[in-house]
Write a structure and sequence with these properties.
The complex is a heterodimer of chains A (258) and B (310). Chain A is an all-alpha fold. Helices cover 77% and strands 0% of the residues of chain A. Chain A is globular. Chain B is of the alpha/beta class. In chain B, β11 and β12 form a beta hairpin. Chain B has 2 domains: 221 residues, Rossmann fold, CATH 3.40.50.300; 63 residues, Alpha-Beta Plaits (2-Layer Sandwich), CATH 3.30.70. In chain B, the strands form 3 sheets. A 6-stranded mixed β-sheet of chain B has the order 5-6-7-3-8-9, sandwiched between helices. A 4-stranded antiparallel β-sheet of chain B has the order 11-12-10-13, covered by helices on one side. In chain B, strands 2-1-4 form a 3-stranded antiparallel β-sheet, with helices on one face. Classes of the chains: A mainly alpha (258), B alpha/beta (310). At the A-B interface, α1 and α5 of A face α2 and α3 of B.
Chain lengths: 258, 310
Amino acid sequence: MALMAGTIHVVEYNALVFRRIWRGSIAVSFFTPLFFLAAMGIGLGSLVNRSSGGVNGVPYLDFLAPGLIAAACMQTGAVEATYPILAKIMWDKTYEAVLATPVTIADLLRGEVVWNTIRMCIVATMFWVVMFLFGVGHSLEALLAIPASILTGLAFATPIMAFTATRRNDSGFAAINRFIIIPLYLLGGTFFPIAKLPLALQAVAWATPLAHGVALTRGVVLGNLTSTEAVMHVLVPLAYFVAGLLIARALLLKRLAK
Amino acid sequence: MGDSNSLILARQLTKRFGDLTAVDGIDFEVAKGEAFGFLGPNGAGKTSTMRMIGGVSPVTSGLLTIFGLDPAQHGPTIRARLGVVPQADTLDLELTVRENLIIYSRYFDLSWREGARRADELLEFVQLQERAKDKVDELSGGMKRRLTIARALINSPELLLLDEPTTGLDPQARHLVWDRLYRLKQRGVTLVLTTHYMDEAEQLCDRLVVMDKARIAAEGSPRELIDKFSTREVLELRFPIDEQPPLDGKLNDIAERIEVLPDRVLLYTGDGDEAIAAVHRRGLRPETALVRRSTLEDVFLRLTGRSLVD
């Protein structure tokens, strides 16, 4: 089989299933950012702007919107790497059927990562459109917010897939959400600058891919990123993604080829 | 080494999971066009053997080739020519009956058009054409099994692996599955199946191995095995509950061999009617006395001292 054929077929399967729910899913991807930017960006933002003249020299909406895109991709990437994957491993045993064909475990993993990327791309694009409608990011470089936020999500997707490959039930997923995703969402630089955190927590925040993903996405939208910053904010999430991919591959092999 | 007609060749094939030896150095060969069975109770190592043949489970030690190829090296090539019906249904509950077949055809790199054509053809073959647009969830157990078989045929495999194809089905559904498998055999598809039903093995298999405790206990055609390990007829005696008399010695020279089970006594003999008469002459009054032909169940009992289905 051609190198990428197996990967493509795994993506096709996901697309076929998604076809039943795509309208609802896209509507959610549009209305969620709409409400968020209206409430937090304009509502809360007017208070922030009045009391301190915005954040880091820009109105609060401009500061918040790009960070939210990166955070939304983190959430999508994380969720897509948990329940749907475990279902295919052990509840519905879909992978057992797929692995009886020429498709390999490496194909499966690549296909799921590509599909997760497509899901994040839908979320990020809808979010970007809403942000554009709110008058933020009216530049060509601002479009880079879409790949930047997808990179952020991928940095969570593959390590969490590796975790999923070791699970016998779904109880660990709630813990991931409670102890990693939600704290990062609230404290990881999306709603206020990391510099406002206590020093120790700043170090923790910068060790996670979200802080870098948010900084990268915000930087390309506001057009105020130095190239050194850009490289660092790309490399950290990329390292998480690659390490997660390698570990997920090893653990899936151990789980599925016994 | 086996001759070049062997589709599957195993020598000292072994599978271990940690300390557990699931398959313990077994030898067998399957020829092209044959229907070959692994008969044995649960836990005998049948499924582990099938998973190794299917190229999804790595061999621990020994030799295994399928189509003359090593599954460790050529997994995808082997799997492209195989059809697999797993023990538990792995159908996609999110998709319709027809979509299940079409998406599966894609994993074999068939075009959408060709996949759709084969899906319709196979739905007819397994008599599910009227359910094409239904969700899989709505199908009965027998229909799901037939759909799983149709799915395994989507790549026109030369070799079909069936792990307990009719376990859990009612008699009517089983006969329908057997009928379809028989037709496939007539078309020249090689069948390899596991079962713990002796009637299934007798119906479908040209040749089989009896597996017990990770090893092969005997090999041959159903007829050969019965001739070799059992008698022509069996007399089954049932005594009233709690009244099975002490038999010590009383039946001894009536039959070639006697098995005393918790609920009945089996007398292995060439002439069942003569044996009944002898039993009565010795003053024993069984509640029922039934003469039947020997089956693979008797072979299994003889070889292992246990029944197949506990």
